[in-house]
Design a protein that fits this description.
This protein is an alpha+beta fold. The protein folds into two domains: 98 residues, no CATH class; 39 residues, no CATH class. A four-stranded mixed beta sheet has the order 1-2-3-4, with helices on one face. Bound molecules: iron/sulfur cluster. The site of iron/sulfur cluster (SF4) has 8 residues, from helix 3.
Length: 139
Amino acid sequence: MVEFYRCEEGIPLQGYAGKYCVVPVEYKRGHPKRDQTDILQLAAQAMCLEEMLCCEIPCGYLFYGETRRREKVELTEEVRDTVRSMFSEMHGYFSRKYTPKVKWSKSCNACSLRDICLPILGKGKSASRYVEEHMDGED
Ligand code: SF4
């Protein structure tokens, strides 16, 4: 979700009077993670919004369903540098036409990309074995 708050140093929005600050809010079903994945996702979303809307977004929020609280995240240069470096690594893989091996984790169970990413292949099952099993019984 993207929230817009009226503020003097914000941006104009078509059809609305005044100026607005832009605040991305990422909603998660679970609880806060120990790693930085949610923070980096939020930072990447903020960086895209900054480019689209020509604005600066100093912070965003992560809301967790289990705690029913939102946590403020400062989008520091350090976090942004990590996002840039991950994007650069990703573009490097893409230009080399290299697909890195997926590491299965508990998060895969609830991930919306599970059917595209096929993390099960990272658990030792070969691609051909996976295809064989899923082709069984099909016409
Ligand atoms: S299914 Fe793929 S994209 Fe989703 S959490 Fe697992 S490894 Fe990451």
